[in-house]
Specification:
Layout (H helix, E strand, L loop, with lengths): L2 H19 L3 H14 L4 H13 L3 H15 L4 H13 L3 H17 L1
Length: 111
């Protein structure tokens, strides 16, 4: 990835984040999806996408982003368990959400 491409992805990520926080989630999602298309291995962009998907009620899309992050970073990320728990809960999978939350608590206290 070239420096210009990297900077473009960072710019779109920041713009998408600001639009989402400013209340214009639809436009923010467009910028975040463009950033993810440019830099598909950037876990920061994927984390922001997963969070916005959760805020908009798109639990399946959030779980997809979380799976991509897990494939890149591994299963050890504590914050990922919390995101996964929220996504599963939103999806109506309460038992899985509870297990993921307990994993989050266990890993958080171990760190």
């Amino acid at each position: 990835m070239t420096v210009d491409t990297r900077q473009s992805a960072e710019f779109l990520h920041g713009l998408g984040y600001l639009y989402c926080r400013g209340g214009n989630r639809e436009r923010g999602l467009v910028f975040l999806l463009l950033a993810a298309r440019i830099a598909p291995e950037d876990t920061g962009i994927l984390r922001t996408l997963a969070t916005v998907f959760l805020e908009t009620g798109a639990a399946d899309r959030a779980l997809s982003a979380i799976e991509k992050i897990s494939a890149i970073e591994g299963e050890g990320a504590t914050d990922l368990q919390l995101l996964k728990s929220r996504a599963l809960w939103l999806n109506g999978e309460n038992a899985g959400a509870h297990r993921a939350f307990l994993d989050y608590l266990k890993n958080r206290t171990a760190a």
